[in-house]
Write a structure and sequence with these properties.
Length: 426
Amino acid sequence: MVQHFDTLLVNIGQLLPMESKGPKRGKEMSELQLLEHAALGIRDGKVAFIGTMVEADTFTANQMIDCQGKLVTPGLVDPHTHLIFGGSREHEMALKQQGVPYLEILKNGGGILATVEATRAASEEELITKAICHLNRMLSYGVTTIEAKSGYGLDRETEWKQLRAAKAVGEQHPIDIVSTFLGAHAIPTSHRNDPDRFLDEMADMLGEIKEQNLAEFVDIFTETGVFTVEQSRTFLQKAKEKGFGLKLHADEIDPLGGAELAGELGAISADHLVGASDQGIQKMAVAGTIACLLPGTTFYLGKDTYARARDMIDQGLAVTISTDFNPGSSPTENLQLIMSIAALRLKMTPEEIWHAVTVNGAHAIGRGDTAGQLAVGRAADVVVWDAKNYYYVPYHYGVNHVHSVWKKGEVVYERRRAFEGLSISR
Ligand code: NIG
Ligand code: FE
């Protein structure tokens, strides 16, 4: 039957539809659907056909794009970013080189607290302009949906400013943004001796945030010198009662029992998990909590011990990976680099990695129904890669392999050649 499309991508070498009912757990993460010599039809911004070139033989389209054997995948999902912040922290690099630990820098008023000062000082407009620069870079790396946290205000006014800025950039940028309230990111200097009062103040904001629909999730930094497991439980329970989904920065540096708490409370994801215990992993598996691993952060903090992705997958967890984009522990927008570190350091296979950055990332931020998959009827968020196969992207590390990015059926990023005749495709 002849079918007509707005756009038809033809001669796709490998197409990864990533179709799935729920997140891919455990062994399912290695079962990759792969279409070779494929075509993808787009109509009204949505995927309208996925199949082989033979099936598409008689199809017509307003524009035919010859993919010349390239890899095509869904737009990537980055499920853990600290997108909105003022300033930068390049001067901390020297301290890190001298061996000053991350939590020590924070204790001395640097780290997160330095970014809090810069974020308080920035206007909402400045935060928006800066965030758009970061989003542009993410888009260029093939990311079409992200989660963005607040948490560099640590006071009412600035946390609101960050949440409003996240909403504003989501309305004007092609990347879809899912917002998380991370008011409990650190103890501000003003409340150093009374963290419980600080958490009460942050909890007081929850009702209004919900009413104004400024965040879907609530997160907390459960860590030595920040918030204890007990404080985290009390705070997150309040958020749960108000109808928020829950996330935790869990067991990032010290193994405190954050993974156990995530499982106990039925959090949608627990993030970092470098020190997660066997019991914590089991509790997460029972609860269906997704493990969001951030190996770029471990790398950037200069640590040798990475999250136990293999044990987590063996225990049946759904694993996603993310940049953790932030100005301190992971200043990069490049999710492709994180895919390479996941391969090298987490020992994840290419099949697991592609599930992690698409379908599982989407489920970790409540977008399983709309992002991370190419299926008929879903938004056509598509990446065409300058690669012939899906192994290639994590393998050739540290550079950008994106040829073009499509959001809702329109090209939103295209790699430009430096000058005619220069070919740098492989
Ligand atoms: O996920 N650990 C807490 N939060 C961030 C780091 C934030 C910062 O250093 O500015 C993280 O690593
Ligand atoms: Fe983080």
